[in-house]
Design brief:
The complex is a heterodimer of chains A (121) and B (355). Chain A is built from five helices and five strands. Chain A is an alpha/beta fold and 121 residues long. Chain A has a five-stranded parallel β-sheet with strand order 2-1-3-4-5, with helices on both faces. The longest helix of chain A has 13 residues. In chain B, the strands form three sheets. A five-stranded antiparallel β-sheet of chain B has the order 2-1-5-4-3, with helices on both faces. A five-stranded mixed β-sheet of chain B has the order 7-9-10-12-11, covered by helices on one side. Chain B is elongated, with a radius of gyration of 32 Å. Classes of the chains: A alpha/beta (121), B alpha+beta (355). Chains A and B meet through helix 1 of A and helix 5 and helix 6 of B.
């Protein structure tokens, strides 16, 4: 069965491109446009993703808030997260959160695919 | 001659005022009968601010106290209370037997330096925030562009004579063009700001028909607004002409409309023009988020916006540039708005340039 990937990204063009890229590679992909939308989808969903690709700067609920709330929810706390961000100080900021996997924007599709494959397989 | 510092000698464990210079008296005095009184009795306001605890500490430990930028509420001669900042030294003094017998306090008023440093820090913080926002805003279309091009490239396999379908390629080109247009807008805004900062915003004046200018802008952007369920209602009436820079005034109208779209998505936007005795007034009204009164002036500042960047994309430069263009024309911009009740921006432009 295809592995499920969850993309949380507010920019429509980036979100749709990533969905298309990962679907072409045979993954089952679903997406959310901000942290709030993502948490709602994850709480109501039955089949949880194998991986979350998470943007940080988003309206309504940003990536940091999403990550903190996810950690408090036992059902979804253990799903691995890969951060995608253009923040120049990204490494230091996400290390504080205990996240080590990240993709710097503008992302490289080969890096996206290899990181997704490494976590999912 | 007056020493630049406020100096005072306090005697004994109760810190009895023994000697003070005029400067000290100016800052902390007021009562000429200070001399001979312990500080707790003579200046209770200094007790409340913790200075007497520090003096007690110096007396007990025999170690001097050195403090920088220490905030201090000072009662002025006219009775008003002012927040000042001091660099202090509380130096213990000893008798010939080496026993502590008092404390000399020396304070320099560093309020001006402190405030200018605080302003500089604020400016540096605003610059850093702006750089972070600018980096995010510029990288977003670049990310999309790179994804599109790399994905299309993966589909091109020259050795097998294979390429993505024309429909797929058309989509790639359309999305890429849109992202490039987003980048151009951002770059233009950044260039405009640097032009304004260098005082090089020059105007190419000609006779401009504001009504047709507004109608042309609305024709150009109307579809984008409709797809965001934000129809533009236009009231231009007669022809109103001014002597101004066509391109820059177009930019003002586009910026105000774009702003209305950003903050008033899903609701109509009204743009109108009318004649004033000295010129014309362009109004752009939205029914969106609105702006709290205390933020009205701020929205025209560089890098500022009344809501968090996370909620609204853009560099936060649009209204700043808009205001600078209006001012360069000898005009004025102001807004009427209340939180939750939409906003109206008014641009008043003179018919002829100021002499």
């Amino acid at each position: 069965m295809a592995k499920k990937i969850f993309i949380v990204e507010d920019d429509e063009a980036i979100r749709e491109s990533l969905v298309e890229l990962l679907e072409t590679e045979g993954y089952e992909v679903f997406s959310a446009e901000n942290g709030q939308d993502a948490l709602e989808q994850l709480s109501s969903g039955t089949h949880l993703p194998a991986l979350i690709l998470l943007d940080l700067m988003m309206p309504i609920k940003d990536g940091y808030q999403f990550y903190e709330e996810k950690a408090l929810n036992k059902k979804i706390a253990d799903i691995p997260v890969v951060i995608m961000s253009a923040d120049g100080d990204l490494k230091r900021k996400i290390e504080k959160l205990g996240i080590s996997r990240y993709l710097k924007k503008p992302v490289d599709i080969e890096k996206v695919l290899s990181m997704v494959a490494e976590i999912c397989n | 001659m007056q020493a630049p510092a406020a100096i005072c000698l306090l005697a004994g464990p109760d810190h009895v005022y023994t000697l003070m210079n005029d400067k000290f008296f100016d800052f902390f005095g007021g009562d000429p009968n200070f001399i001979g009184k312990p500080i707790r009795e003579a200046a209770p306001e200094l007790v409340e601010q913790g200075f007497v605890d520090i003096l007690d500490g110096v007396y007990k430990t025999r170690e001097p106290f050195i403090g920088s930028d220490v905030p201090c509420l000072v009662t002025q001669i006219d009775g008003t209370v002012k927040q000042l900042y001091f660099d202090f030294v509380f130096q213990p003094s000893f008798d010939p037997m080496g026993k502590i017998n008092g404390i000399m306090t020396v304070g320099s008023d560093v309020s001006e330096k402190f405030e200018s440093r605080a302003k500089l820090q604020e400016a540096l913080k605003a610059r850093d925030e702006f750089l972070s926002i600018a980096s995010h805003e510029l990288k977003t279309p670049v990310t999309s562009l790179k994804l599109q091009l790399q994905m299309a490239r993966r589909g091109v396999k020259p050795e097998e004579n294979l390429s993505p379908s024309p429909a797929k390629l058309a989509k790639v080109f359309d999305i890429s063009t849109k992202q490039i247009e987003r980048l151009i807008v951002l770059i233009d805004d950044l260039l405009d700001v640097s032009r304004i900062e260098a005082g090089k915003l020059s105007l190419n004046r000609e006779v401009v028909d504001i009504s047709s200018l507004i109608n042309e802008v609305v024709d150009r952007v109307g579809e984008q607004f409709l797809s965001a369920k934000c129809p533009i209602e236009v009231e231009t009436g007669d022809s109103f002409t001014i002597y101004g820079d066509q391109f820059r005034i177009e930019q003002v109208v586009v910026n105000l409309l774009t702003n209305a779209l950003k903050y008033g998505k899903g609701k109509p936007v009204r743009v109108s023009v009318k004649s004033l005795p000295e010129g014309i007034r362009i109004s752009v009204h939205d029914f969106g988020l609105g702006i709290a009164k205390e933020n009205h002036a701020m929205v025209f500042e560089r890098f500022e916006r009344a809501v968090s960047h996370n909620n609204i994309s853009g560099l936060g430069l649009g209204l700043y540039i808009t205001k600078q263009i209006v001012v360069a024309h000898g005009g004025q911009i102001h807004l009427e708005s209340e939180l939750g009740k939409g906003s109206t921006f008014y641009v008043d432009l003179p018919k002829t340039p100021p002499s």
